[in-house]
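Shall we go through a protein fold together, starting from nothing but its sequence? Please make up or recall a protein chain and show it to me in full. Go ahead whenever you are ready, and we will take it from there.
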Amino acid sequence: MTGDDAAQLEERAELLRALGHATRLQILGTLAGRELSVGDIEGETGIGQPGLSQQLAVLRKVDLVSTRRDGKQVIYSLEADRLREVARSLAGLAGIEQGERGESHAERLRRGGGAAVFAKVGQDRFSP
């Protein structure tokens, strides 16, 4: 294993450690599809300062959230591309091929992915 490989593995491990924490997952779920100030996140999650700030710092460090300033407030939002990257990486470890949109063969088939997708996945996987 090269030094670059080891560094990449450590980066992935750090990212998974960040995701492997109930409070941080709660924060990510709260931010899903919207931007919120620290005060709004605190109000919705019940996570008090300084714990909230500490958890947000961990999420920022691994690029799962981004920030912008609005006057004196710091506004947080999810880094959706980063989360899709994580999903693709985990799917790859599980041997699940995903398309550009981050969806599996099964998801593409459900939305009408066509006969070629169906042939790859196989009928037996979709029995009720």
User: Anything to note?
Assistant: Confidence is low (pLDDT under 50) at residues 115-128.
